[in-house]
Write a structure and sequence with these properties.
Helix content is about 70%, strand content about 10%. By secondary structure, the protein is of the alpha+beta class. A hairpin with a 2-residue loop joins strand 2 and strand 3 (about 75-80). This is Helix-turn-helix domain-containing protein.
Length: about 90
């Protein structure tokens, strides 16, 4: 009978440790996913279709300073986090 109580105590401790480890891993995964999500790069075409505008309008917005673009070789990219941050609440 005493052995049963000892096994239950070990099982409860194991369960608590396991749940704590799972929570830590989920928090780590969530933070890692959030970092990757904010670093996502969009092409000019993707941004234009997101706003339902023409590429020339997107070019004008960049010249006006509304959006910041990044170049890699011949390609132009926009950070999704900056695109979302540029939206003005009305």
């Amino acid at each position: 009978m005493e052995n049963l109580g000892f096994v239950q105590a070990i099982t409860e401790d194991f369960k608590k440790d396991l749940l704590e480890k799972i929570k830590q891993e989920l928090d780590h995964f969530r933070e890692e996913f959030r970092c990757k999500e904010t670093q996502e790069l969009l092409t000019r075409q993707e941004v234009a279709s997101l706003f339902k505008i023409n590429i020339s309008t997107l070019h004008n917005w960049c010249k006006s300073g509304y959006l910041k673009k990044y170049a890699l070789g011949n390609r132009i990219y926009f950070r999704r986090s900056e695109i979302e941050a540029s939206l003005i609440k009305i």
